[in-house]
Amino acid sequence: MKQHPLCSDCEDKISPMDLPIPSGMKKEWAACESRRQFLGRTGKVLGWAALASLLGEASLHYRAFASDPNLQTGSGINNLALPHFAPKAKRAIYLFMSGAPPQVDLFDYKPNLVAQFNNDMPASVRGNQQLTGMTAGQARFPIAPAHWPFSQHGQTGTWISDLLPYTARMADDLTFIKSTNTDAINHEPAIMLMNTGSMNSGKPCLGAWLAYGLGNMNDNLPTFVVLQTKTNPKENNQPVSSRLWSSGFLSSEFSGIGLRSVGDPVLYLQDPAGVDRDTRRKMLDAVEEINRQTLAEVGDPETNSRIAQYEMAFRMQSSVPELTDLSNEPESTWDLYGPEAKSPGTFAYNCLLARRMAERGVRFTQIYKRGWDVHDNVVGNLPVLCQETDRGSYALVTDLRRRGLLDDTLVIWAGEFGRTVYSQGGLSQENYGRDHHPRCFTVWMAGAGVRPGVTYGETDEYSYNVVKDPVHVRDFNATILHCLGIDHNKFTYKFQGLDQKLTSPVPAFVVQGIVT
Amino acid sequence: MSVATRVASSAGSLWQRAHQGRRGWIGAGCATALILLSLLFVPLDGRARADWLQFLGRFHPLLVHLPIGLIVLLPVLETWGLRRPSLREAAGLVLQLALATCLVAILFGLLLAYGGGESGSTVTRHLRGGILLAIELLFCMAVRRTWLQTRHWRAYFTLLAALLLTLVWTAHQGGSLTHGSGYLTHYLPPALKRYVAPSAVSSHPNSFFAKHIYSVLDTKCVSCHGTNKEQGGLRLDSYESLMTGGKDGIVIAPYNPDGGLLLRKVTLPPSDPHFMPAEGRTPLTPDEIARIRAWVLAGASPDAASVPGLFIAGDGEEAPPPVGDYSALMGEIQQMQRLQGAKLIPVSTKPADGLILRTTDVAVTFDDSQLAKFQRFAPFIVEAELGRTAVTDDSIATLAQFKNLRALHLEGTAVTGRTLGKLSSLSQLSYLNLSATKVTKEDLTPLKSMPKLRHLYLFNTSAEPAAADNGIRSTQ
Q1: Reported pTM
Q2: In a domain, B28, yes or no
Q3: Which residues of B touch A402 (CB under 8 A)?
Q4: Are residues B162 and B290 in the same domain?
Q5: Degrees to nearest 5, angle at CA B320 with B315 and B326
């Protein structure tokens, strides 16, 4: 056996590959070598390597399984036995409002608060909760009622802030959960929990689980696409990182593929001048051949992912230009999404792309909109944020519906937590701020699998604590999986000695009150 | 009551002397029968008496199972006894026990009816049934002696058959009293239900009231507020009587859930004397209460098909029939994928959920002849994703063979709609997408007869309904 280029130890030891042992065992040994390389480089202790290979065998075995291109899901009965039951939704679009929208100002209508303007919030409401460093030192917690009026909409009479005139039009089509709650009070852990079911990094996100479990519906486009919305520098933009669309311990081919919000959606999409498709193909075939050799030698399952990704990139060279070419969109599209949708990187543009991807069989699209972190100047920033997102969300749901796609598409609108009813910093009639609030926030869903027009869960009169039907983030994720035909308890992946799942080991429950 | 005790004790002394001879038997039997018949005249005035009468009476549902078991046992022993005579000896004892327990059950039942203030035709029928049973048992005892001596079996076995029939009828009346009259037939398959339980619920059998409110009233309320009993002068067995209310006032106030007695009483603490359903009957579930509340809030309409924002599991479309098992064809299915590029995807791991025909990757080249090759799998295909493919009107005839098709995507194809009528044989089709095709309004006429077609999409066609702001969906 050739020495792996990165491995510098055991130069003159006997390789297991030379021993008269079954080829299956040799394969296993080869599969363990990625772990061995690591240990070899750091400690150069063969004993540790042997121990690691014994302990790590199971996890590596599964890892190799996930990456084997012959076991790709999505065609024929797959080895994962998914979906567990006939799904209502084939695909999902997740509008992620990063930074946490203030539920008190948008959906959680509390008319009684107007009379309590600038009153101190009763200490009993907060209980012994630990606040963030940003407001923990405040001398008082003055109640800041929503600055904008609410109105009732649709047959259901749902109360929605006047800041969201477009969302209000589809009040009867949406399913609101007002009692969503989370464990984390800061952005990074909360947004990780929302996306991956764990505050620590290293776990696969919802999209990666779906890509792994349900597979693709279109060979020429990624299964899981992430779209970033161009940031507005006037807003308080919390960073979002690729951890949020990472595949964690699953093979990296299941991680989200980001399309850029400025310039070409994918870099180097065009072949360089003078290189035609055939040349490109030949080059890739050669690269694949080399990669296969490396795979046979080193057994690192990530090599498989690399092969798959080269192939996907090649196919995307033709599918992405078609996807992003909006010249054939009828006039009614622009009437619906608004002129903003013509400029790449806007939320409306991303919503339009999401609809086009839904038509073309992308399993899961996640659109990130940053800037909702309104610690101060709510009155100045919130109308802008709403104006940026309101019409796009409405247009997406409406467009999906009129084209017959909402029957098998689930749309989700959510942030990572809520915001406090009390003002952070000074409160005046003109302005206020709101701090992070994990105990309750409002999210909405629409489309396949959920009951339109339902408002689920209730908060207390301060929009502070959940008083009825709490929905933890884990329950929320379990519900999303349910809509896609997956029993979250059965959808597991062995890693580090645990049957890992999106909803973490803590029990989670599908919100039966909102699913059809 | 003292009179009754004295009469009963004198009948008892008659029984003590009965073994002395045939005349003694007849005397004791006739006396008992007379007492039983006189019970028919006990006044059931609907006035509840909360005392020891009712306390004892409530043991009736328990005691009543003793005679039931014994009476069912009787013909078994007698028939079997034709082969094994030892069993026939036991039958005599069982008969006597059946009579004794039957009398006790009648006594306690009477206490329950009298003390609990029961009235109504079902109670009366149940009482009559019980008394008839006891008298039949007496006859059985009389006839059995002759049977044992003469082996003349016809009369005795006819009597036994009558006994069983009476038992079933009486027990059913009793069951209707405790569980409500619709209890047995509630989950009867709809096809049979038509014959058994004519639903005179309302003139709108598909209304929210008929489907979701009436069923609650029927199981939880009508046993006391219906044709059998009319407690509080209130009947809840039809929309009209529900809205009329009872002696204490209106029970349903449209748009005002707290304005009517019904929602007020069912939400009282169960310990409250005014709590309904009374007398330890099964209370309404929170879900049922929420359902009624939402319905009242929306105006308590007799004919509205749905209440905004309220969904009930299993409502709407009934589940489509399962398709056959395609597992045996799995090899061929995978081969088709390799040859055609179009895929047959299992909906779920359960074969009964069927297959999806997915053409996304080869849409441009997927034409009528390719579709025809999938005809072999037609019975298993529940969804055909043919959007933006090269199929034409010729494929409609092929698709008409896909009997289990529930969803059909034809958006952006060259289909013109001239042949759409052929699809009307697809009885399971509920989703049809004809967006961006050349269909016209006239083409759609034959689709009107399709029973399950709920979602018809006509975006970007000349048949598109004048767009309401957000809705292009046309729902039949």
Answers
A1: 0.70
A2: no
A3: 435, 457, 459, 467, 470-473
A4: no
A5: 150
